[in-house]
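Example 3.2
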Amino acid sequence: KRMQDELIKKQKELEKMKRDAHEKRIKEFEDQKLTLQDRLSELNNYKEPDDEQEIKMQLLRMKKSIDKQKVDEQEKLEELRMIRKEHEIEKLVRKKIEMEKIMEQRKRINDLSLIHISEPTRQAEISYAVFC
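Structure, written as tokens:
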């Protein structure tokens, strides 16, 4: 009984997934249809320029559009360069901080001061030194 209930539940989930996928595909097709309708409308409304002046104007508009795209791309590239440079600087700063930490640790090790040396009173005793 329990397995049958789970099977029914899984079948319902599968059906829902199929419906959702089907609805998603329908939505995608509708979006494509609207895009194609818009493009068809643009093509139907396009008219050939009547004179040389109109052709020049269209070419100028296209050139301005291309120039703007070029400037935008250059700005994006410059921004990416700056971000890369910031990351490189950040890495260098981290390395410098690490090196300073290491140097400080080494300095602390080298800054030990001798504060006491024992003198053995017998021949078998060991002498020792105390550093701080």
